[in-house]
Amino acid sequence: MLAGPEVRMTLNYIIDSSKEKYRDLPAIGMAMEKPISYGELHDRISALAAQFQKDGVTKGDRVAILAENSHHWGIAYLAIVRIGAVGVPILPDLPEADVHHILAEMKVKMLFTTQRQLDKVYEMSGEPPETILTLDDYQSVEGLLQVGRFSDYLEGALRAYRHEDEEDEMAPFPEVAEDDLASILYTSGTSGFSKAVMLTHKNLTSNAYAASSLMDIKPGSTFLSILPMSHTYEFTTGFLLPLLMGARIAYAGKTPTPAILQNLCSHEKPNVIFAVPLVLEKIYKKRVLPKIEKSKLLGLMYSVGFGRKIVNRSIGKKLGEFFGGNLTLMGVGGAALNPEVETFLKESGFPYLVGYGLTESSPLIAGGPFGDKTIAVGSAGKPIPGVDVKIMNADPETGIGEIFALGPNVMDGYYNDEETTAEVISADGWLATGDLGKIDERGNLHIKGRSKNVIVMANGENVYPEAIEHRLNSYHWVVESLVVENNGRLNGWIYPDYEHIDEMTAGQSRVQRRQFIDNLLEDMRKEVNTQLPPASRLAEIHERREPFIKTATHKIKRYLYDKQGSVA
To answer: Residue range 325-331: average pLDDT?
Structure first.
């Protein structure tokens, strides 16, 4: 469903039109709880927006949300933009110093938060926001800050909105245009420099409309939300998209473990889930591979191509049951999907769709369309409708160059940073993504990695560490890996699955266990090197005994690690 000429490209228009079309359908709520309808959602947004105005929030003011996922998060955000104020979503896992910086730089007027996040606000050097409300209704007993409960605030706002206890006429809401700012988001990227991305109403709505054309979503469908709403991937695809289509959103509250996810799915029976690759890769390693390894028959069948496809198709049916039995689409994005896992998904008939994008593009640049049989495994599909993609400075032999994108989804720029904005957005509007890739003969976009991550060896050859890491991560006893250059040689760092290691070394002494891990790493190095070109072969592989520090979408923050794979 693409936006026609009569459609206004604002978030307010989406909510108003959805209320008219889907008034009595369930809209939003916590998983395993009764949701509120589109009509009730609209009332709450309007009541809150009116109360914001009474409390002095005006068009252009910044209001922050530092909280875990909930339907209250979404209601608060939509009330903020209803009056032309700017939402400042803050990732819940950001450290205290970053939170202080954002709240101070944005001069935030109101803050929505939770008990878990409130500690990050106590020690601010400057003045805290004038109004602080807890979305989980936590009442601070420390007395360090004046904190109100969201439910009390909302109840009072609804009473006033319905004119139950006052006769004052409600002030009209300001006109909100498609080029007005809707969000300012601080990236938590892998480069180490957090930038404040300014996204307009048109940036976000155009991306949601384009996404709606990639798949068939019927009114009344259920979306299970498991990713942080403060990240544009979930915000656009898991929040705006379902509200645009008349679907119901059920919030898990936080990223669930596979066991909790299975329980939620058995209850909610979702039609759509958007996830990061880590979710599927964990399930593949913990639930799929063990079935094959423990069965001689399945292992034998899996060793031949035709037999592997039969086994994968059978396991795929069980995987569908794991997700509740009604899944029609799982969107996969935020990081690269391991090709081995994607091959399994393809052969199993699992309904997945890989997408590619970044915060600066609201976020989708490419993905799907779902069901297109020309989409190549390992690619991010085609550029989405309304977005053009080109490869700049492509290598004449490989076709690999930097990915540039142009469309209504490209950000308004970085807040208070015209110089960096000019570096990434050309005069004619093309966004330099900083990612390397190529487009194949069928129009599929293949992502090769970040340009900053490319390792140039002494002989001048380019090595893409992400491709090597995919091979390392395909071993079922590997949780994650990092490839670094050290004095002209490539080293791999492995964080093992110690639960799996414990199973394999049961009854062994500490010395025997140490030797087992060393042998495992060396055998892996030799085996992986047979699958790699000479320039990409690993000189050493080392064990890392704790997880790498990652972004909200589970990409390793490479800039933190030196040549020894330890925190620099």
So the answer is: 97
Question: How does pLDDT run across 101-156, given as a tens digit for each residue?
Answer: 999 999 999 999 999 999 999 888 778 899 999 999 998 766 678 899 999 999 99
Topology of 454-560 in CATH?
Answer: GMP Synthetase; Chain A, domain 3 (3.30.300)
Task: List the structure tokens of 540.
Answer: 């050493």
* CATH 3.40.800.10, domain 11-19+33-199, yes or no: no
Tokens in use for 316? 């795929």
Output DSSP code: residue 474: T
Asked if the bond preceding 363 is cis, omega within 30° of 0, the reply is: yes
* Separation of alpha carbons 271 and 470, rounded Å: 29
Q: What is the DSSP letter of 96?
A: H
Which pLDDT score is estimated for 165? 47
Q: How many CB atoms lie within 10 A of CB 233?
A: 26
Surface-to-core class of residue 366, CB atoms within 10 Å of its CB (0-12 exposed, 13-18 middle, 19+ buried)? buried
User: What radius of gyration do the chain's Cα atoms show?
Assistant: 25
- Contacts for 252-261: CB closer than 8 Å, 24+ residues apart: 252/31, 252/69, 252/224, 252/225, 252/226, 253/30, 253/31, 253/68, 253/69, 253/70, 254/68, 254/69, 255/226, 255/227, 255/228, 256/226, 258/282, 258/283, 258/286, 258/287, 261/226
Instruction: Please tell me the class of the 379-452 domain.
Output: mainly beta
Instruction: For residue 274, give the 3-state DSSP assignment.
Output: strand
In degrees and rounded to multiples of 5, residue 407 shows phi and psi of 175, 175
Give the chain's mean pLDDT: 92
- pTM above the 0.70 mark? yes
Tell me how far apart the alpha carbons of residues 169 and 179 are, in angstroms, rounded to a whole number.
29
Task: Report domain extents, the chain.
Answer: 11-19+33-199, 379-452, 454-560
Angle at 238 between CA 20 and CA 50, to 5 degrees: 50
Q: How far apart are the first and last CA of the chain?
A: 48
How many angstroms separate the CA atoms of 261 and 282, rounded? 12
At 532, the pLDDT band (50, 70, 90 cuts) reads very high
- Residue 110, token pair as written in the block: 């109101």
Evaluate whether 11-19+33-199 and 379-452 have a shared fold: no
Structure tokens at 99: 């939170």
CA–CA separation, 370 and 431 (whole Å): 25
